[in-house]
Amino acid sequence: MALPSINPTTTDAWKALQNHFEKVKEIEIKDLFSKNKDRANNFTINWEDFYVDFSKNRITEETFKLLLDLVDQVKLKEAIASYYSGDSINKTENRAVLHTALRGKETDTVLVDGKNVMPEIFKVKTKIEAFTNEIVNGNKKGYTNKPFTDIVNIGIGGSDLGPAMVVDSLQFYKNHLTTHFVSNVDGDHVNEVLKKLDPETTLFVIVSKTFTTQETLSNATTIRQWFLEHATQNDVAKHFVAVSTNIEKVKDFGIDENNIFPMWNWVGGRFSLWSAVGLTISLAVGFDNFNKLLKGANAMDIHFKNEEFSNNIPVVLALISVWYNNFFKAESEAVIAYSQYLNQFATYLQQGIMESNGKSIDRNGNRVNYETGTLIWGEPGTNSQHAFFQLIHQGTKLIPADFIGFAQSLHGNKDHNDKLISNYIAQTEALLNGKTKEEVLEELKEKNLSEAEINELLPFKVFEGNKPTNTIFIKKLTPESLGKLIAMYEHKIFVQGIIWNIYSYDQFGVELGKQLASTILKDIKFNTSVNHDASTQNILEYFKNFR
Ligand code: F6P
Question: Which residue ranges traverse the bilayer (predicted)?
Fold first, then answer.
């Protein structure tokens, strides 16, 4: 079944939302709280260890109802059925989109072209488990018979960001192996990593779905050369493994067939950490924890598939985001995690969200006449409070924000955790309420300032408030809860793609830069020059003078 292709702006719900927006665009969230004592409870979803409060938003009961009408009218239910059942919903690449199957149960049946993919998925999972155990236990050894101490993940985009973010986020659960990530084609990146490595005890995991990506192949080649300065060609098999769909290319690169962990075309790069792309995660935190990550994601998959939309976390978050993006014309969204472990989370989400929904052609092949993908950015709290929060509080832009927090700290330092969480809670309260002129006046009077001084300072100290936030409060950061959190955003991406009537699972926009880079590389290497604009030509000449 193909995805429905409905221009959302033609639906009754959209038109009703547009009218409704004109009436409510000036509403104050704090007034909504005063009018409805049940607001916080009505706009909170309690699910397993997740507490999702979306009441601090510029939405009324009516807004919420109309947004729910919108997903019905763009046929989200049918789209979810297609998504989970292995239909080729990535139509422009003629592929199914089945990261959900990767975290499914062995007894599930998921058909791609009439064939159940679950047995293959579990075959690879068994291979990941056996390999992980051998490396972690030290049974599998390097070419000088020493156990491995270091793992290097060589990949970029989805073959790097997911594993890197998860390994960092789950560092509390890590074993003795040290993990490194090489992604950038910048040779200084790989050289800085190589400086830290002992070839005798390092395992290299080359991750590339296509095995054609310039960055990954360049880094892998450089690393193999470095390795061969210390060891022999025969030793490569003990130290290099690969994850890819392109088995022939991997073999051509010289990787032993037994060292290949396959993946499939129906796994998109930015949704692939659940496949063998997550091998480095499994090596870093052990297969059991990797499996728990998958189980958490599976729980969110089931919630998303079965829960009614009004109580469905990814659906509700997607709708709120559409409300700001398309009606308030908010351009960006911040994701602020109050956990240093989630340091790389926003960076990871940037690929997932912006590569998926950064599209301007709809599913009918027409240019959209409405906004699509939002800009995503963020840094952990409390650091970000001392960096960019000023702009969220008092700037001119509307920046809806997700505040992610974990009630229990992993190291159990209650004093620090109480301080962290008090900041977490205080910020959403401050963004909601702001500080009125009267409150500022009161405060300044207590400081014994003159009237003139007070009047001068007053306007600068007022906070408008009314800044929207979602609080996503989770009991504890565990592999399961992280799996749920990532899957929550994956499904939010899906819902928004359905509403915006775009294809979320291709990324043709990345191609043009790649093509031009290869032309320019030829110009640099062979001192040619092919039809560049004057600016590009000058920049090229400038570089040639210094290289
Ligand atoms: O940036 C484009 C992209 O195709 C991403 O979607 C993907 O995650 C990345 O390149 C890496 O691709 P591969 O895993 O094939 O090396």
Answer: none
Please name the CATH architecture into which domain 99-290 falls.
3-Layer(aba) Sandwich (3.40)
Distances (CA, A) of 205 to 218, 238, 255: 14, 11, 11
Per-residue b or e along 33-61, where b marks 16 or more CB atoms closer than 10 Å to that residue's CB: eeeeeebeeebebebebbbbbbbbbbbbe
3-class DSSP state for residue 206?
Answer: strand
ipTM above 0.95, yes or no: yes
Please indicate whether residue 350, judged by its CB atom, sits closer than 6 Å to ligand 1. no
How much is the pTM? 0.98
The closest of 532, 401, 394 to 469, measured between CA atoms, is: 401
CATH of domain 8-73+307-417+468-501: 3.40.50.10490
- Cβ neighbours of residue 386 closer than 8 Å, sequence gap 6 or more: none
Q: What's the CA gap between 115 and 96, in Å, rounded? A: 12
Taking the C-alpha atoms of residue 260 and residue 127, their distance in angstroms, rounded to an integer, is 10
User: Using a 6 Å cutoff on CB, does residue 280 contact ligand 1?
Assistant: no
Q: What is the pLDDT of residues 83-141, one digit of tens each?
A: 999 999 999 999 999 999 999 999 999 999 999 999 999 999 999 999 999 999 999 99
Say if residues 197 and 180 touch (Cβ distance below 8 Å). Answer: yes
- Cβ contact 361:368 at 8 Å: yes
Helices (H), 270-373: 279-285, 287-306, 313-322, 345-350, 356-357
Give catalytic status of residue 386 as yes or no: yes
Contact 117, 99 (CB under 8 A): no
Which element (helix H / strand E) includes 479?
A: helix 479-500
Are 279 and 167 contacting, i.e. CB atoms less than 8 angstroms apart?
no
Question: What is the spatial distance between Cα 224 and Cα 463, in angstroms, rounded to a whole number?
Answer: 57
Q: For the sheet containing 44-47, what is the strand order?
A: 44-47, 50-53, 469-476, 401-408, 332-338, 375-377
Choosing from 213, 216, 511 the residue with most ligand 1 atoms within 8 A of its CB, the one to mutate for a pocket test is 213
Q: How far apart are alpha carbons 240 and 26 in whole angstroms? A: 59
- 388 by Cβ neighbours in 10 Å (0-12 / 13-18 / 19+) ranks as middle
To the query of whether residue 180 is one of the catalytic residues in this protein, the response is no
The reply to whether ligand 1 has any atom less than 6 angstroms from the CB of 210 is yes
Summarize pLDDT for 474-500 with one digit per residue, the tens.
Answer: 999 999 999 999 999 999 999 999 999
**What's the start-to-end Cα distance of the chain, in Å?**
54
Residue 473, beta-bridge partner list: 51, 405
Picking from 337, 316, 473, 466, the residue whose alpha carbon sits closest to that of residue 392 is 466
Cα of 431 vs centre of ligand 1, distance in Å, is 37
